Structures
1.
Amino acid sequence: MYTIENSKSTTGTKSRVPDVCPVSGMCPICTEDCNVLCEVAKGAFRGRETLYPAPEHFGKSTAASNKDYFLDWSHFQLMAELLGAKGIEPDSDIAFFENADITTKVGSRGKNPIDMAVPVHIAGLGSTAVAKRFWKELAVGSALTGICEVIGENVCGMDSDAVYSNGKVQSSPDMDFRVKSYLDQWDGKNGRIVMQTNIEDIRGGADDYCLSKLNVEVIERKWGQGAKAIGGEVRLSTLERALELKARGYIVMPDPEDPRVQEAFRAGAFRTFERHSRVGFPDEESFLEDIDSLRSKGAKNVFLKTGAYKPEVVAFTMRCASEAKIDLLTFDAAGGGTGMSPNMHMAELSSPGIWLFSQVMACAKELKARGRFVPDLSFAGGFVNESQMYKAFALSDIGEGPLVKSIAMARSPITAAMKGRHFAELAADGKLPSGFANQYGDTPEKFFISNSEVRKIRPDANLGTDIPWGAVGVYTYLHDRIGEGLKQLMAGTRKFKLGCIENEDIVCLSEYASKVSGVETLDARAARVMKALL
């Protein structure tokens, strides 16, 4: 039996009894003298705060849906191969997993393809507190790994030290810091720093600033994300900050200029304001003009990121991206986010991963059949390991190798950064959990397995300062965990280059997964091939 839960870890609420009403999620008997704070009770006290993940974790956490969509990447299985190999000589001394090539190119159909050492990039991390808090770890870690990192929306607009003239940004120390953090450790070849822009950024001239003054070469336009479809939002902990951002043109709620609101805030009735971004309403003609304008201003690559909107919008987006010859188009499936995305948005709004993926692939096949440009693709939406990645690559093969060139991740690299920093701080204070210290060592030099490798890459850098330990955590997770794991899976299917991964490498474990994706079930495939081969 499946129930609607009225107690969630994301809202910090509980139910009094475990056997809740399956229709409402409330306790079957709700009593007056109950002191447990369920979602309804919290809503009675805190109202709109209940819409978002528990505010006490804001800035030190990421959030995601806890809804089971009954179809995910575990409903697909990879098929091991024995006979022959692709992408390498079928020689037992050569076809070893360490020799698998996991490098990729994004914008491979354009004039300026971007090499990446691992087929992952860190998705747009913008003005959210957690992104700013761990930016150096993420930027340095991604530069060391040789992948793209996307600076997310609203960074200039949220920078208290930014200087604006006639509504256009002239300088932004925070944006400067984010770009520099990446470029200082970049090898000049693999990956790029990417600047993402929403409607607020465009109005404020953030893309012009980054292109002309900060040597940013890649701009990503944003139409939304899978965690929400109402624009970006963050919390503001001071009245002064709320007034500052309203003066810059942002929507701030409740109105910080209202004397009654100010009085309530000072009295402690609420502790944070909400800053919201506006949503855009793209049309094809203006979008094409905008992309042409970006290229004329010096953008070598132009990306587009969109959310998990309804199928009609997926088709519209694919058509626009095709016409504009976008270098990389990222679709973000429903489920998670890095800021304060509304809980109901994460759980109940937009298309979950496999459904969205299948819609995009249907559009790609149609574009290809008509002889039109098909952009390189990326997907985001809860990816955390190499098997999910491999399945996405295989599912995106429509005859010429995977259309998906990179998987966009955010929550998992942030976790790597957070844990890396936290455990390094615990070690410095002599407070590491005894079980961890006994098993892996009591200093970062010991418990980060990639320590020596990072020192080899950057022999002149000081680990712990120039390269924060959290950045070593990001590198270790992406390069040593994801990268090596992907190589092993590729060797198991005997596909030693990403471009060799095929649709035939996966099967479905359920009829429903097959219906949604168009991929055969394992039993159907077995029935089809057995007679022919015996």
Note: Residues 1-51 form one domain.
2.
Amino acid sequence: MTTDGDREDVDVQEPTHPEVTRTGQAGRTSQAGRGGRVVRILSGLLVLGLTGGVVALAGTLPASPAATADALPADEVDVAAAAGTLVCPGPLRLPDDSTSGDSAFDRVPVAPVERVTVFGTRSGTVSLTPLGGSAQALDDGATVLRSPTAPVVVRADPVDGEPARVAGATASVVADGDLRGLSAASCARPASNLWLVGGSTEIESSADLVLVNPGATAADVTVEAWGPAGPVDLGSGATQLVAPGDQRTLVLPGVAAEQRRLVVHVSAAGGQVSAYLQDSLLDGFTPRGTDLVVAGSAPAAELVVPGVVVPAAEVDDPDAGALRLLVPGEEDATVSVRLLGPDGETELPGAQDLALAAGEVTDLSLGGIGAGAYTAVVESDVPVVAAATTAREGEAGDLDAQPRLERAWSAATATGGGLLAVPDGTTGTLTIGAVPTGVEGEREPAATPSPEPTEGQRPDPDAGTAPQGPVVTATVRAYGATGRVGEQEVEVPVGSTVRVLVADLGADVTGIEVVTDDDPRAEISWALLATANAADGPLLSVLTPLVDTEAVTSARVREASRLGVG
């Protein structure tokens, strides 16, 4: 279930044109054979550098079947470490009160508190630059940028030939009004294809799509959307030109009105972009949650959604949270969902061998399962996209007819270790799930299974707190302004999810690193539940990590016998 993004296939053609395709193997280096091939390889790498690097080309140039069939076996070479780029979401877009006719009513009576947190474990020079603003350097391994006026671009230089390891997060806290909530997200690598699963454009909902181009060339962006009844015609909103170093906002209710459930696909040509949705919901005067919907995993037959933390709720509770699914292709799907929780594996009621119509966005209720932290595993016979939303109830305000609600979206992610920044001013809880691979490891189980294990290997109450089945281990490291401040070995029973309080890892933690032990029996999927306190109830958001397996570290280079780019 890891994301295969750590290597590229390159056909070095005669005379000069490169062709790039993705492969799914881990990066390894092999020596070129004859001197002539060495020249062709170096020429191909030079062309790659001149056209913007392996990362940029990989998102836009598909493989040519004819060229692949005729090509010689590929040689693998290291890709020189390049500067890394992350884009952090900008400040919340405030509602327009100019047409309300009531100057005494303020829809956002409390100013948002907005910060960008960045930390690194290895890097050269690191800069934080709001679009149109001045750069700020990363200080002593961690920096907090307060009150940014625009999305922030983080650029990190390699060090000693190794790519930088830097992560960041944006957080906006609004304690009252229409945008009440904690809206937080990890800073993301720009890409050519982005899938945003979440949001709504029904009455009293808002969904603003923000496109950010951190590059030096204009990006021609195509936007697609799906709703409960299928694909949505966006009219003129389907194409957006985003200038270099600029952003554009598409107000989706204006081009895709009355869509209770929403999925958005963003594809870019000419440059790579970052994209996110600002999702907000009202019920009359009662705020029902604001959060950022960020890009998740591309369509796949198996997806993992971490950080699904739910309270106890009835099956028919409309505020129980939901798992959102879409089959973006033309073929219907049969889908099954497993939830890996604190007591092991649990089936989501009604989500086994579920028939999904192609093109229709579906929500599956998370009601009827016990309170706790879960990792959702979605398995389908055709590619799907997925995300989850969860909610917390607060107290009613003076003008509210019902309790206030806070919501958080969790995106599907790749598995494996990586980095994640802890938003400044929040309290964090890590959720770490061990997703079974179906492969039997060579090592003995770390704990003896109970003689009569119950469903999901629920621990025997007489056996204490020791795991009752095989476990995998993850190393969690905490970082602050002065470097590493704590480390903990976390054992996760296979098929379950555990929680780790960030406060238990050290004081003033600004970043987390998770290192996995490559156990063949399970893969680690993790996220951060960030919370902030408000007078009328808790505010929350879920942040996903920058996973190491998504980084490009090497290229596969081979000859091709035809001209042009496939």
Note: Residues 1-71, 442-465, 561-566 have pLDDT under 50 and may be disordered.
3.
Amino acid sequence: MQALKFENVYFSYSEDGAEAKDDWFTAESSFCLQGIDFSMEEGEFVAVLGHNGSGKSTFARLSNGLLSPKSGKITVFGLDAGEEKNLFDIRKQVGIVFQNPDNQTVASIVEDDIAFGPENVGIAREEIGKRIDFALQAVGMSDFRTSTTTRLSGGQKQRIAIAGVLALKPRLMILDESTAMLDPRGRKEVMDVVRKLNKEEGISVMLITHFPEEAMLADRVIVMNEGRIVMSGVPEEIFKDEKELETYKLKTPRGVQISQKLRLNSVSVGDGFDVESLADEIARLVPDCVKNQKKNGAGVGLSEYEESIAGVKKSVVCKNLHYVYNPKSPFSTHALNGVDLEISEGEFFGIIGHTGSGKSTFVQHLNALLKLPTAEKKYKPKKKNKSFLNPTVLRVSGFDLTDKKTDFKALRQKVGMVFQYPEYQLFAETVFEDVAFGLKNFQKDVSQEELENSVRFALETVGLDYDQVKNRSPFDLSGGQKRRVAIAGVIVTKPEILVLDEPAAGLDPLGKEEIMSLLHRIHDDWCKTVIIVSHDMDEIAENCSRAAIFSEGKILSVGSPTCLFAKESLIEEAGLDVPFTAKITRALKEKGVEIVSDFTMADFVKQTLALLKTTGAGTGLTEGGRSDA
């Protein structure tokens, strides 16, 4: 039986599109979906890829009756979604998890939130209890059953949202970027659950994702672009065509990218769709006489970079920082438990850790959104806790945050904060007003000319045309444009320190690259220190000079990505993963091939080419490989 079928479906959010639907040739540009034909068999696992704004989320909402098409027909498990009487039955059978968990949280206590769906479809009370247990265990949140939903981190909320749909045990589960805010272990756990439900219980799965590695788990992949399905096939076929994917602003998995870069340098390797296959491909080219030879370098001590910043002025000095949410209440949560960290001026610094490790709580202290005196004095435990005998120190950009007399307004002008969903920081009627707000708030006497010049500078810095967007409503922009406007509203004051909490989460691959490139340009031009919180280990390896690993409100380790990711047991202890290049390095080492790199893709390819040059596998290679590798 078919789980889902679209027949020539068109959809538009605007009334103009609805009125013009009889003239498709002239009106198609106003449609989010344009002539979609798609079918999905019951029990099938389909991954949906596409750039931001390609129509993926609209496609998902049409699939469970939250939206109705302007034209065409949608059938769900034999039920016509165009007939209103069928919508309740369709929504019972099709569960959807949205990208932002805050949009689907309905109760203040976790177990009540998960029970909401089953209660509304008439599940027996005893069965609801069993389903809550199952769902919480599936997403690794059993210990949070009685927690308040408002005090959960973004990633924890996402797990609860997924659990709420799992508790319904739908016949078709749709996940709309629902793992975007999870840490690597959380993503793996959720995907393991989804695969188990698909394979063992026959639940159909539609996975909308920007992670190629997740899409590789599907039976079939479809690619959307500008409201159309432009590619369809098994994952291996789709991800072989790097050039076509790039035209749709997408990327192949990292293993495939490495394989293609090696082939550009005359190395004969197959597509590395996973770690083991790529390791096998490289290892077979290395003669036995080269294997098991130890190489020097990439130790776990201080890198040259770390030694170079030893005497540099500090942007952040933090010692013995504690913080408690809901103190002296049954919901008391110790978010920070004695954090010690120094960040030097000029660094591009990363903060990593599992969901709920205290990362967001820590960075919110850096511009006093969470104030230290409250946390330290009101909630100070008994003195027998020796960790509290040492005074707390928190100095940021020269400001002492332990001093009540500190000018926090001046601090916030120097320390800009961009939150997990920066587009939710937008509020004004026009882009100009939104970006100008911070500057007017900090500088009451700013002239109109200076204001216009500053807003123009901020918008052009984030890659937006000032004249084209200044008078538009920020809410009419695309998702990527909204995020850029939100960042512009923070950098308009030219802060000395820029703090970003998951700045690239939920963006398509090209969007992520553009945001990181933007941050590096800002860092190089005028911003002294950039601090990013991220769950993407490859992002940290490729961009950060140093990083700190948070776990259970403490810091496990601080160092360069090269040093940190070499400590695999520590990374595992923190509930994280290592970059793809670290995984392939480990797999090759087990096969007797040792490649030492800094875990960036470019350096891994360079070091691999240098090794393979000695085997004759790559004729005509220059020393260290091609410069464009």
Note: The two ends are 48 Å apart (CA to CA).
